[in-house]
Write a structure and sequence with these properties.
Elements (H helix, E strand, L loop, with lengths): L22 E6 L14 E4 H10 L2 H4 L2 E5 L3 E3 L1 H8 L9
Antiparallel strand pairs: 1-2, 1-3, 3-4
Amino acid sequence: MTDHPSTYNAEDTYREGIQWDDRASLHRVDDGGGLLDKSKGLRDGTFADLVKHMMLLPEDERSKYYIDKAGDRKFQAKEVTALAQLDDYPHKA
């Protein structure tokens, strides 16, 4: 999994597109967020693996979760469903 790019020669670490191998964690929508939000993750892994995990959930259950991706970006169920349809998604069937 990749970490945040360094500031030294950062242009060498930038990659175009979605970073499927970035660190991510799965959270419940109602977990309250806050100062200890990072410790409330239910599952950790790569962004691609967590998208796969959410897509394996029943459709009516997905809206109860979100993925917190490296860089403090949160992906809700509708966004995750759209990402799973992309041509470059690694776990596409």
